[in-house]
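Note to self: user wants both folds in one dump. Writing first protein now.
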Amino acid sequence: MPPPLRGGSPRARTIRFVAVSALAGCVVAAGAVGAAGPWEGGQRRAERARAAAGPEVDRDERGGGPVRPAAPPVLAGLGGRATAPLPAREGLAGALEGLLKNGALGAQTSAAVVDVATGQQLYGADQDAPYTPASTIKTATAAAALAAAGPDHRIETTVVADGDTVVLVGGGDPTLTARPAKEGAPAAASLKELADATARGLKARGKGRVKVAYDASRYSGPALHPIGPNENIAPVSALMVDEGRLDDSDHGPADRTTDPAGDAARKFAGMLHDVGVDVDGDPAAGRAGGSAERLASVSSPPLSALVERTLTNSDNDIAEALARQTALASGQPADFEGAARAVTARLEKLGLPLSGARIADGSGLDRADHVSAAFLAGLLARAADPARPELRPVLTGLPVAGFSGTLSGRYGADAAGRGLVRAKTGTLTGVNTLSGTVVDADGRLLSFAFMTMEAPSGPGAQEALDRLATTVAGCGCR
């Protein structure tokens, strides 16, 4: 549970009460957060159970009766109810402007705060200027994919029989796994299950010896991200297993294969051999003919779960897959350029401010990405719109300060924003961003975006950004 209420000013204790009450939809214990996944249908399992249980009931610090928090839970706020007072522009300006002048942020800073219920911008500082967003662009990629394909869309990996050859056909699921299922690990389609089903289909047809080919043609264009070979992203392929990782990790930097499709096919062929199917030669790239028969398939988790995993862990491989799924759903080529056009078009349809914006990739690794703070904050407000329920995973996937994903190592045990701030981080050398949501001290749900470039120190900039988000959370500002 959050730290017990201790001493301090009445204002500080009020903020702590709000922090306890406002996250009925968040993971609020270190043990629970360690199992923040798997994700189910747009809402973490732990959050679903907690939301169903109702608002948190705490005991006051004198050991008296239960204290019912005044603020509504976050998930109620996301449903569009807005009964808490609206912060005043002047109050927010007074609270934030001094912090934005912090030298740790560097000379170029941008900020926007938006009331989620109304979409009204409550505060802005250079909010319309395009900045490099780094990984906060993943919120845009996620929203575009959900709008294009829907939260229930699943990515299929299939096997077809073409004479004496079976063809492993990639659909673009980077989470397809060749590993044994692990308790507590995110759900994923299994290459082993696909091989087993293929073997059964072959034996039913009286075939015990085949050749294996693989087809990754659903994606086109260059496979390498513009940043080149990198431990943060594998070559982008419609066929890969475990994101092309060469270790047993499932997020974060790792050595990557240079041949994701070939490696996946070789593992598949080995699994066929293990269940009694003889494989002639090594797998080779190829395509099935028009008379090929479908043998077996496996499907990824729903797009809602992929979005949440992308945002929580800032997963570059899944982000690029989401961009290409957007391209495929929009009739665009599934390459970097086609995906960028498709994502941009979907964001335009959502009515977001795109003046000066440029979408160059899905992950934010490309410094050519440019969006404004007003865009990022407005996007999160749009994701909470009751009329756009398909976008809700953009919010439920945001890391929780001090507990999950890329915010698990930020906001220390005594930080006022711990457990209250939910935000997507963005970090490149010289670029630091933070965009998310908070319930303020009066119970109003706000979205925010803070962006900076050319800060003298990355850690210093992150601390300053965290302080800005915490200030919005603790501010009634009337």
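First done. Writing the second protein, which came from a different request thread.
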Amino acid sequence: MAIFGQSNWRYCTKCFGLWFNGNPTNGVCPAGGAHSAGTSSNYLLAGDNTSLQAADEEDGEEAGSNS
């Protein structure tokens, strides 16, 4: 199982949730206005690509290929 991650997630000090900080704006916060990172760390969300590999194999592609 290959592990991947996406960084640039921040903790919002207004709604207490994570939001992706890799877009041009901070998005819309459910608490009103834009999300606020305050002094938030840069979080990395980890995942696995097992389902992506299975889809590639069903399509006849070699797992992990970037074609």
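Dump finished. Worth passing along: The first helix runs from residue 50 to 58.
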